Amino acid sequence: MRVTRSGKVLGVTAEDTFTVEPWCLREPRLDLDVLADTEAVLTVANGSLGVRGTLDEGEPVGMPGTYLAGVHELRTMVYTETGAGDPEATETLVNTIDGTAMRLLVDGHALDVRTGTLQRHERVLDFRAGTLSRELRWRSPGDRTVDVRSTRFVSLDQRGVLALRYTVEAVDRPVEVVVASGLVANSRNPHLSSHPGADDLLAHPLDAREHAADGPRLTLLHRTMRTDLLVGATAHHDVAIGGSGADEGVTDLESHGEATADHARFSVRAHLEPGATITVTKLVAYAWSDVHELPALRDELSGALTVARHEGFDGLAARQRAVLDEFWEGADVEVEGDPELQQAVRFALFQLLAATARAEGRAIAGKALTGTGYEGHAFWDTETFVLQVMTAVRPEVSRHALGWRHATLPQARDRARALDLAGASFPWRTITGPECSGYWPAGTAAFHVNADVADAVLRYVDATEDEEFAREAGVELLVETARLWCALGHWGRDGLFHVFGVTGPDEYSALGDDNVYTNLMMQRNLRGAAAWARRHPDAAEPLGVTADEIAAWERAADAVCVPYDEELGVHPQSAGFTDKPRWDFAATPEENYPLHSHYPYLQLYRKQVVKQADLVLALFLRGDAFTDEEKLRDVAYYEEITVRDSSLSACCQAILAAEVGLPDLAHEYVVESALADIRDPEHDSSDGLHVAALAGTWLALVCGFGGLRHTYSGTPGDGADDGLSFRPVLPERLPRLCYRLRYRGRLLKVVVEPGSATYELLRGAPLTVRHEREAVELATGAPVTRPTVPRSRPALPGQPPTRAPGRGLLRDDSRPETPATAGHQEQG
User: Fold this and answer.
1) pLDDT over threshold 70, residue 817
2) Residue 32: CB partners within 8 Å, gap ≥ 6?
3) Do 599 and 572 form a contact (C-beta atoms < 8 A)?
4) Domain harbouring 107, CATH code
5) 175: alpha, beta or left, given left = phi > 0 and alpha = psi -120 to 50?
6) Are 30 and 111 in contact (CB under 8 A)?
7) How much is the average pLDDT of 636-655?
8) What is the distance between the alpha carbons of residues 436 and 90, in angstroms, rounded to a whole number?
9) pLDDT confidence of 808, banded at 50, 70, 90?
10) Which of 155, 331, 330 is nearest to 695 (CA)?
């Protein structure tokens, strides 16, 4: 059965769906009850092209999906009352042309797992090969048995290439088989509750322009109905015979191609003796554009397919393995003591690479290209979670992603003007740059997005020393985001710089004053903009930056208001937050989570209840602004009121739990973040993976137990504490953690064991890091081991009833339910 975090039974549990193995995700049997979920989890992608893990024959299907980055439709927003600055349209990612279809007829019976007898079925997502493979044995209603083996992958090397190999073998009796390989546009999509009013777009998003079948080559060209984007796919097929008897075992081989507006098909027929096989190898090239016309798109398709055919399936597969070997060399995380967590962190890293590898010039969406959840929109999650990981393991991804943000600055400036503000205001959610969210105070007022983008810019440049990017894009990003803060902020009578009426990361609070996370990230933004404008005057001057403006940024940064509740000894999430009545957690039944599905936001906004870590995220990203004692008190306070109705929360809470001396609690949070999709405890992965939570798994392990902190002042040499520092700590159940990361052209390896940490520079020039505040000099070939400082173990804080972390996910979970802190509940 499937059980939510709070214990609610939802059906088949994903614990029974996948076996626990270190380098793959193996589905040993097919369960149609979780088909849509496994389609998302078994996605193969490269950041430009994403293909959900649908069955080869196309049916049954939960939600078909072949997505091309940026290919979307527009949907008009409807308001009962319009207001100034309200967006008029939203963008929706659409399913394009399915190139995976491989239908099989066995003596006239179509292979369908719901008919005949499925004797075995297994699928494997291989993290090192980068492939999704499938093996099955099926006995048809006509009592003929065949084995089918297939492998598919989206090339991590070629931007728009999908490769498939499909083999059919006769088992015990001669059979006549037909393999029909297709390109299919405008596939049927089921209704999704996450797409209100978008059914018309999802049902038929593409308008046919050209179709062709020339022997083994198929082509479909379409145009999106409203956004006028050209989309094309072309496939080439090779047929091979093999198995026992080879030529003698395969007779009557014949093939033909045909095409209609939305469906092109290549079919091959053969008679197979027992042990004989027929293999169809299919290479599919995709091209799409918002500027090219049909002749140019045809040429692009032809070129992409020519390159793919030159490499061939085996060559593409070898290159796929080479890309992953290089990736794992600098990104692998080894976890001893928890095999499922080991599998989960590698799954997370694999899917992060799949979400970003070739996403050049396009947004990295909250669900990447694994489904149409959130309509395919990108959020602040990308910069704060995903790029934090990729900067450490594959920094070129961050360069491309931040280059996309820079390319959308014109829309961000337009948005700022619409809000009567200066500078640029990056959107809450978007695909191509404009704001795609209708008015919602928890989104419209989430100006922290600006600071999150700026923070990612500062982190990337410090980690790579990419001054070219700083001059060409970074300065402009920092300047325009800083200008918004000076327009948004207010100098109070207390001489402090305040920001009123904003929303921080916690979506159960809105329009608060002096949100601590927002103000501290704004402070980093302002200081970074000032430092970079001075460092790169040639880039700042064309933007009209003056000495007075730089001084204004620095004055505001130095005077930022950071609220503090002296009576309670904690930081309120926003000014006055700790004065609000607490949510009545004791009277909230477990089936009423997530709260936003059962209670009006207006009730949530006026209470102390936190959807996702907000102040705690500030403790992590701006840990320099808090003392150790303040962190401990803040963590304990917010544990009692955080319900984690967002997958972004657990990893943040894990990092701070580890830092303040609660590593075993951190372990429970890490597990919750890591298994958000593999186990899908909340039954919400069907429309796409939780990409930021996948990144959070790495952050929780590396920044939590590995103790990694990356600090940066904005100007090389100006910050005495700039660089990498480590304060490792392990939970009782994990005896060893090993991870790697890249920094300023170096490759480092860190091994944490009980009582010690070892630092090794695998590649690059000597580097100084800090261990427990001690400077440590590293050089290649000379590992350095230092003792870890024992942490005091504070009392275990409580969580709201039924909201303890990791319950039902730790396989040997025996942690008792945490009692409610009833004395703090609102009464009546």
Assistant:
1) no
2) 60, 113, 114
3) no
4) 2.70.98.40
5) beta
6) no
7) 97
8) 4
9) low
10) 331
Tell me: do 612 and 522 sit in the same domain: yes
Q: Given this model, what pLDDT does residue 78 score?
A: 86
Q: Are residues 355 and 261 part of one domain?
A: no
Question: Looking at the predicted structure, is the pLDDT value of residue 248 above 70?
Answer: no
Instruction: Supply the residues annotated as catalytic.
Output: 507
pLDDT-derived band at 684, boundaries 50, 70, 90: confident
| Stated length of the chain | 828
Q: What is the pLDDT of residue 606?
A: 96
pTM for this predicted structure: 0.94
The single-letter DSSP state of residue 744 is T
Same domain, 402 and 264: no
Residue 676 is encoded by which pair of tokens? 């958000």
Are 274 and 174 in contact by the 8 Å Cβ rule? The answer is yes
Mean per-residue pLDDT, 793-799: 92
| CB-count burial class (<10 Å; 0-12, 13-18, 19+) for 333 | buried
Contact 235, 100 (CB under 8 A): no
Same domain, 148 and 270: yes
> Residue 811 — pLDDT band, cuts 50, 70, 90?
low
Burial code (b: 16+ CB inside 10 Å, e: under 16) for 259-280 equals beebbbbbbbbbbbbbebbbbb
Provide the Cα torsion 435, 698, 319, 121; round to 10°. -90
Residues 186, 53, single domain; the answer is yes
The CATH number of whichever domain residue 737 belongs to comes to: 2.60.420.10
Q: How far apart are CA 418 and CA 425, in angstroms?
A: 10
Question: Domain check: are 35 and 164 in the same one?
Answer: yes
pLDDT tens string 593-609: 999 999 999 999 999 99
CA 87 to chain centre: 26
Which amino acid is it at 821? T
Does a structural domain hold residue 555?
yes
Please check whether residue 271 lies inside any domain of the structure.
Answer: yes
What does the pLDDT read at residue 243?
83
Contact 621, 448 (CB under 8 A): no
Identity (one letter) of the amino acid at 166?
Y
Instruction: Render 188-200 in DSSP notation, one character per residue.
Output: -----TTSTT-HH
CATH number of the domain where residue 381 is located: 1.50.10.10
pLDDT in tens, 558-615: 999 999 999 999 999 999 999 999 999 999 999 999 999 999 999 999 999 999 999 9
Which residues are registered as beta bridge partners of 181?
102, 266
Residues 533 and 648 in one domain: yes
Q: How many domains does the chain have?
A: 3
Final residue before a domain boundary, out of 767, 787, 807: 787
Q: Which domain holds residue 401?
A: 332-623+630-724
Closest C-alpha among 605, 560, 551, 616 to residue 583 = 605
Residue 198 has pLDDT above 70, yes or no: no
pLDDT at 3: 37
Q: How is the beta sheet containing 723-726 ordered, strand by strand?
A: 708-711, 723-726, 767-771, 774-778
pLDDT value at residue 81 = 84
Average pLDDT over residues 404-433: 97
Q: Which residues contact 105 (CB under 8 A, 6 or more apart)?
A: 111, 177, 178, 180
Side-chain half-sphere CA neighbours of 772 within 13 A: 14
Q: What CA–CA distance (Å, rounded) separates 52 from 62?
A: 10
Q: Rounded distance, CA 287 to CA 231, Å?
A: 6
Per the prediction, the chain carries an average pLDDT of: 92
Same domain, 613 and 663: yes
